[in-house]
Amino acid sequence: MKDLAAQLATTMKQRHWNERYQKLLTQALKDPEVQQFLQDHQLQNNQNAVLAGSAAIYEFVQAKKTLTLATGYQPRLLWVNQAIHVSYEPDAAELRRQQKVVFQQKFKTLAMASDVRQADLDDYARGVNERQASYMAAVRFVIDYAKAPKTFLPGLYLSGPFGVGKTYLLSAIAKELVQQQVEVLLVHFPTLAVQMKNAINDNSVLTKIDQIKAVPILMLDDIGADALSSWVRDEVLGVILQYRLQEKLPTFFSSNFSMKDLEAHLTVNQRGDQEPIKAARIMERIRFLAREVVVSGPDRRFN
Ligand code: ADP
Ligand code: MG
């Protein structure tokens, strides 16, 4: 390395390089990472390459000093097409930050508790035998969807009592999909129903439905938790499901009702009228879009 510095000094003098610049380059060449780089690429004796890359080398050493941790980027020397370049690459913390942003952009929720983002598929099954079937169904979906995202795959209809982890499992599936760059929207359905009724006042029902219906993976949480008006059932739920059926978009549900009991629930509207045909039409769509999986096990709410 000493040799190279000395040789370069001579060459720079011969070429009448600015003295200050000579000093800066000589200084930069002493940097241990620069020396390692030159060694790694066998450039110790390649004066021409080093002179041609002197601006990059100098910039690299400067950037190391001036880029603080806060920027999240690290300079790196590269040897590309027979020339030295500097590139700026995100460090580990910056990569984590960027992944988090992508995660937040891809994993959308409506009226869900913020802890849904912490759900994890591996944690879901741990230690509870009753969860094996729903866990396997979830894993199956994630794997099959990754293999062929363009072909229609039915989602899951998770049924079971309060507290067994249905919402948790939906969130855990969402997280897996989002990590594969798939956009997921997880919606608390009873809240959506209320928001839709309010949207009538400012004429934004259709816009709101449009925003929801076309997302690649839609999850409707807690369907059947409240009595539905005929309007929400047919003009909101029915319209969303019809679109997803036509476009063959996977859709997930969670409910305290089995599919059979949900049908009975949807049959009676808020005013107490019996509307079996309307309910059957909704159920037909749900059965096409998702397979029922019963979630059982202990109530997880109090531990
Ligand atoms: P459900 O939707 O079936 O009523 P939740 O998914 O809301 O049940 O689960 C009830 C509570 O237990 C929630 O606070 C949830 O975060 C927690 N929970 C469920 N499954 C797990 C798990 N595998 N690990 C940790 N917490 C869990
Ligand atoms: Mg729930």
From TrEMBL:
**MF (Gene Ontology):** ATP binding
Residue ranges occupied by any IstB-like ATP-binding domain in the UniProt entry: 96-266
Offer one Pfam family short name for this entry. DnaI_N
Biological process GO annotation list?
A: DNA replication
Q: Give all residue intervals belonging to the Primosomal DnaI N-terminal domain.
A: 1-88
InterPro entries documented for this protein: DnaI_N, IstB_ATP-bd, P-loop_NTPase
**UniProt protein name:** Primosomal protein DnaI
Gene name per UniProt: dnaI
